[in-house]
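Appendix B, record 7
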Amino acid sequence: MNSNSNAVKTAGAYRWLIWSVMALSYIVVFFHRMAAGVVRDDLMEAFHISATTFANLGATYFYAYMIMQIPVGVLADTWGARKTVTAGTVLAGIGSILFGLAPGVLLAFLGRLLVGIGVSVVFVCILKIISVWFRPEEFSTMSGITSFTGNLGGVLAQTPLALMVAAFTWRNTFMAIGLATLLIALLCYLIIRDYPAEAGPAAAGGKNKAQAEKLTAASFIQVLTNRHTWPGFFLFAGFFGSYVSFTGTWGVTYLMSVYGMSKNAAANYALVATIGLMVGSVLIGVISDRIQSRKKPMLLFGFIYLATWALLVFVNGGKPPEGILYPLLFMMGFCCATFILSFAVAKEVNPPQIAGVSTAAVNTGGFLGAALLPAIMGMYLDRAEGLAATALYHNTFMYGFIAVVIGTLCILLIKETGCKNIWQSLRK
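Structure tokens (predicted):
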């Protein structure tokens, strides 16, 4: 009895150590995700590129991330989180160093591609670890806490990044981040364990590898052919794509052009949206777990997110009063975090032993939106002529608003799970 109690305590402590190391790598993920918007002018000047090319350079990360999601889900369920995250983080570190050293835009694209491929493994593997090391009723809360922590990288990629670039140049900054990423990869290899039994006899109080069903082609196809998987896919695409389009790509230039702000001042507004996403990720996840509902909080906060975009696009022709921007952007980030619940739903409407593939399928949607929307906006900005800045960005952000409308409508199609796995009942 006493031995079992000690094992549970040891496993409980070690799971937080594993999660902490993986969360550290997830901070790097968010840094690279949001960094392009702040160094936009530096990159366009260094490589002599247009707005469209810049948008494509930024989107390379998201294309790579998106394409890798299903393979990553398979790797998380078969190869394991430890090996997958370590290899991916090493690749991301090399890509960041190459990006900083790139003499021309082609190598910059390659560096950005390597970063995207490398960091694409982290989130799905964290969700896999949470599904193994934590209780089912903790899944949504832990997903939210993970998103909150990862968004610290988004915070670093706003005002702090602007200050770092001003002090050390953008090249030196990205090379330093690359070296730090390689050190994090070493920690991942040394500390992460896929199952409690692998952490030693004292921690063997939870699930083990023998309990994990072998991933088969049939189970993989089952996730993709499950109609309850797809509403979360399109919800995440619309919400996250629009959010990244504003905070990570065009929001800073919009604020500079329409409101006449300095780069640092504009970055502060984007930072507020990032903080909103961090807070929302935790609170929305906690609310969902506490009330034992996925769909109700998704409906509430999803429609508020739609309202924030309506205010941004339609109030005063696309130029809301400057005095409401801080609360508006905070609420935009906060309510965008609704997408966190789509991972829990994906896990709960599919077989529990393939949580990696099911969450990866939904994750693909977010990065499809994050890759396409900024590029579409960039093409419009390049082609639009003769418009004042306010009208120009009003039209540009209409694409984001439409994406949010689609994502919000998809919430109506979400299957309520009651915060438990209902896969077996769906088969009847």
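Remarks on this record: Residues 37 and 250 are 7 Å apart (CA to CA). Confidence is low (pLDDT under 50) at residues 1-9, 201-206.
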